[in-house]
Design a protein that fits this description.
With about 180 residues, the chain is mainly beta. It has 1 helix and 13 strands, in the order αβββββββββββββ. It has a 6-stranded antiparallel sheet with strand order 3-12-5-6-7-8. A 5-stranded antiparallel sheet has the order 11-10-9-4-13, with no helix packed on it.
Length: about 180
C-alpha cells in the first residue's frame, strides 16, 4: 500500500524496472512510504540495497526501512530506520517511531558521522525481535534500540520528504523481508 493513496498525507513510492524511488506528498514530513500487505509476524527482518548517485549536501536524501508499520487515512505508525545517502561526516542513521499524524514522531536513536552514511550498492538491514531493534550497514551492527510501543504491523520502505528533483538520484534496488513465520 502506498502513502499517498492510502495515507493521503504521505508521499508515494514509485517503481521502475529494478528501482523504487519517492515522490513528495502534500505535507512536510509526509515521507514517501510503501508497506507490504498481508499478515506479518511481529519479529521482522528487512534488508535492502541502496541506489545512490549525485550525492549532495543540499538535499536530505534518505532511504528508509519500515518495521511494524501501519497506514490508514491521515495516520502512519511504526518504526522507521533511515540512512542518509551521503559519505561525509554529515551522514547519519536514525531510528524513529511514527506515532500517527504527519510530523508526530519520536527519535529513538540518532547517530552522525561517516560510518552511518550509505552509498550506491550498500546493503541496509534492520530487525525487530520482541522490543529490540538492530540496525546494520553491509552486515555490520551499528545500533541497538529498545521500544515497546508497537507489537504488530507490516514492513515496508520509504524516502525522505522534500527531495524534489533529486528523487531519481537515490532509492532502493532490492527489498527482502522475513518474519519468522513458516
Amino acid at each position: 500500500i502506498s502513502g499517498g493513496i492510502i495515507g493521503i498525507d504521505w508521499g508515494d513510492v514509485l517503481t521502475t524496472s529494478g528501482l523504487a524511488i519517492g515522490r513528495d506528498g502534500p505535507l512536510e514530513f509526509g515521507d514517501p512510504t510503501a508497506l507490504l500487505t498481508g499478515d506479518w509476524g511481529p519479529d521482522q527482518t528487512a534488508e535492502a540495497t541502496v541506489y545512490s548517485k549525485n550525492q549532495t549536501k543540499k538535499q536530505w536524501q534518505e532511504v528508509e526501512i519500515r518495521l511494524r508499520s501501519s497506514l490508514t487515512a491521515h495516520c502512519c505508525t511504526g518504526y522507521e530506520i533511515l540512512f542518509r545517502c551521503l559519505k561525509t561526516e554529515e551522514a547519519y542513521m536514525e531510528v524513529v517511531r511514527w506515532n500517527g499524524l504527519v510530523g508526530d514522531f519520536t527519535y529513538l536513536s540518532r547517530n552522525t558521522g561517516l560510518q552511518y552514511g550509505v552509498a550506491n550498492g550498500y546493503v541496509i538491514k534492520a530487525t525487530i525481535i520482541g522490543n529490540n531493534i538492530k540496525v546494520y550497514i553491509n552486515g555490520k551492527l551499528l545500533d541497538t534500540v529498545n521500544d515497546n510501543t508497537f507489537a504488530t504491523g507490516n514492513p515496508g520502505i520509504g524516502f525522505n520528504y522534500g527531495c524534489g528533483e533529486t528523487y531519481g538520484d537515490f532509492g532502493l534496488t532490492s527489498f527482502m523481508v522475513t518474519d519468522g513465520k513458516i
